[in-house]
Design goal:
This protein has 24 helices and 2 strands. Helix content is 64%, strand content 1%. Strands 1-2 form a two-stranded antiparallel ribbon. A hairpin with a 2-residue loop joins strand 1 (477-478) and strand 2. The protein has a domain at 1-130. The chain starts with 7 loop residues before the first helix and ends in an 18-residue tail after the last helix. By secondary structure, it is mostly helical. The chain has helices spanning 8-33, 42-66, 70-76, 80-92, 94-97, 102-130, 136-155, 167-178, 188-191, 194-209, 211-221, 228-237, 246-268, 284-296, 315-330, 332-350, 370-395, 406-415, 431-443, 456-470, 485-512, 520-531, 546-561, 563-571, and strands spanning 477-478, 481-482. Helix 1 (8-33) packs across helix 6 (102-130). The radius of gyration is 26 Å and the shape is globular.
Length: 589
């Protein structure tokens, strides 16, 4: 929804002042909460926040009188009324609630109000930027870069870390979190304070869902409908075919995310009792929420220095983490389709049977889409194949460790496709097992998910192209459906580009870190882990040179955005050719 204003020049000035206000809020919060002793007096910073608070109220009043439709204005900013009502109650009852310090309580209330305002304005801005039509791919890249730089800056604040951290390490950690990778150069649980860990988990959540989608979700929760241009932008970002389902799908994204992560956190809470002293009682809920978000977003970040190796014998590691990772890697469109089909079947159970149930049925019955069938089939095959491959190669390795066992092998087969958690020492695996993991990392999760890699559907299409060629089939067919040629071309392009980037990243790291004499298989493993946004490591990442770390930073960003997104950003304004050349046969193979 977009409100029309009478004086557009005045509204443009207000938009500019709002931007300055958001920057001022960020500035004061960094100084107040990022330093043990703020560089400026606290009263001065509190005074700035109070001034911004009154500015935000004033600009809303001005915009109300400047709006063409007062009704549309209230529909867009309805949440301001209860929010200001709470602030008014806080001001009146500050003396009774503050135990003699009403000033600090009022300042804290204003801080909460400013945070809500800043988040609202930033999220609305992200949706607007994505829907401008000026190359949405470049807008998405720019937003991710801004998120990474902001996260890196926050991680360098004195109250965010326990040990010294360089600019490269801060950006590396922020990129790994925003790109939901999980590669680390610092111990997340030891080297970062609670504030730093909160910054990391927020980056994981924003990066996993996509900050543009997050902005659209917030807008829908606040009751604002999207314009047609905004819906088209969301359609492209969510890989959704039907424009009419975008609003429902975005609403489903936030509900499903909160529900799955919430259930995951509750199920993880009892798990921390297994290793005494590992989790302090006051931090148990934070550990549960952190690891639940990290698992569902397929990030692989853990607050333990040995990841989940100390919990390898705990059933919760397999009964909670594995479902969270799989659900996060299926893709929201597949989850939506599964929920839709399941919901219809549940309704049928409680619906009275009629003589001719399909005669007056206008709406076609829900069914699994081709996308869902491919995703579920390939996911199951990769989990089984990866598990058997790891068990087989470890059993017949020159130095058999008799590990991984079945559960450990299954866990690594699931996490290798993008999550990055580990219950075994990756560096101790045989070379053949590492190759299996590299293949799984290269394939990754499914389209429209928090996962990386070329995606399961892309892998299936490439395999079916080969199959159709060998069988001399004119079309590529899957589940009795033909696949359009343009989709096949895109799948082949993505696979070739991913392979080229992986090769280039491996060669570049082999050059920059040649003095470290790392085995080439370990270098290739780290490059595949970064590009696939997985996070599994043989342990060499913290020892890489600054150049090697920046190569992985670039690989993580490319892996999260996807080579096709970068290619689209470069080729957005190129018009398709309006002619075809004569066809001439060629010999291949």
């Amino acid at each position: 929804m977009k409100v029309e204003y009478k004086n557009k020049t005045l509204d443009a000035v207000i938009v500019g002042l709002n931007l300055l206000g958001i920057m001022a809020v960020a500035f004061t919060f960094v100084l107040l909460y990022g330093f043990d002793q703020p560089p400026l007096p606290r009263k001065t910073l509190h005074g700035i926040d109070i001034g911004i608070f009154f500015f935000f109220i004033t600009e809303k009043i001005i915009r109300y009188f400047n709006a063409v439709s007062k009704r549309e204005f209230f529909r867009l900013y309805w949440f301001e009324i209860p929010l200001l009502g709470l602030m008014f109650v806080l001001f009146l009852s500050a003396d009774a609630m503050s135990a003699g310090q009403p000033y600090m309580l009022i300042v804290q209330g204003i801080s909460v109000y400013l945070v809500v305002q800043a988040i609202d304005k930033v999220c609305r801005g992200t949706v607007h930027i994505a829907s401008t039509g000026r190359n949405p791919a470049r807008s998405l890249i720019a937003l991710f870069v801004i998120l990474i730089l902001a996260g890196g800056g926050l991680l360098m604040l004195p109250r965010a870390y326990n040990t010294e951290i360089t600019f490269t390490d801060a950006i590396f950690t922020a990129t790994s979190a925003a790109c939901v990778t999980g590669l680390t150069v610092k111990d997340t649980g030891r080297d970062f304070t609670l504030m730093g860990q909160i910054v990391i988990v927020v980056l994981i959540q924003l990066g996993g869902l996509g900050i543009v989608i997050f902005g659209a979700v917030l807008g829908l929760l606040l009751g604002q409908s999207m314009t047609m241009r905004e819906q088209v932008a969301m359609q492209d970002l969510l890989s959704e075919q039907t424009l009419s389902r975008i609003s429902k799908l975005i609403g489903f994204v936030i509900v499903a995310t909160l529900f799955i992560e919430g259930v995951g956190a509750i199920c993880l809470y009892p798990m921390w009792d297994q290793v005494p002293g590992m989790v302090r009682p006051e931090y148990r809920w934070f550990f549960s929420v952190f690891h639940s978000i990290s698992a569902f977003c397929n990030a692989g970040f853990s607050l333990f220095n040995k990841n989940l190796m100390d919990y390898r014998n705990n059933p919760g590691t397999y009964l909670v983490f594995c479902p969270l990772i799989i659900l996060g890697g299926l893709g929201f469109s597949v989850l939506y389709n599964l929920a839709d089909v399941f919901g219809q079947k549940v309704k049928k159970l409680f619906k009275k049977e009629v003589v001719y149930p399909d005669v007056f049925q206008i709406r076609s019955p829900r069914r699994l889409t081709l996308q869902s069938k491919i995703v579920l089939t390939v996911t199951a095959l990769l989990i089984v194949g990866g598990t058997l491959g790891l068990m087989l190669f470890e059993f017949y390795s020159p130095k058999p460790t008799r590990d991984p066992r079945f559960l450990s092998a299954m866990f690594q087969s699931i996490t290798a496709r993008t999550a990055g958690f580990n219950t075994i020492d990756i560096a101790g695996l045989a070379s053949s097992s590492k190759l299996v993991l590299i293949v799984l990392m290269f394939i990754g999760g499914s389209p429209g998910s928090t996962a990386g890699g070329i995606k399961t559907v892309t892998f299936a299409l490439v395999v079916m192209v080969i199959y159709a060629t060998l069988r001399k089939r004119r079309d590529v067919e899957m589940f009795r459906r033909a696949v359009p040629l343009v989709v096949l071309g895109r799948a082949v392009t993505i696979t070739v580009l991913y392979g080229a980037v992986l090769l280039a990243g491996t060669l570049a790291m082999a050059i920059t870190d040649r003095g470290s004499q790392f085995p080439l298989e370990d270098v290739a493993f780290e490059a595949a882990s970064a590009l696939g946004t997985v996070g599994l490591s043989t342990g060499i990442t913290p020892s890489l040179t600054s150049e090697g770390k920046w190569i992985l930073i670039g690989a993580m960003l490319i892996g999260r955005l996807g080579p096709m997104t970068l290619l689209t950003a470069l080729m957005f304004n190129i018009k398709p050719a309006q002619y075809d050349y004569p066809v001439e046969p060629l010999m291949v193979g």
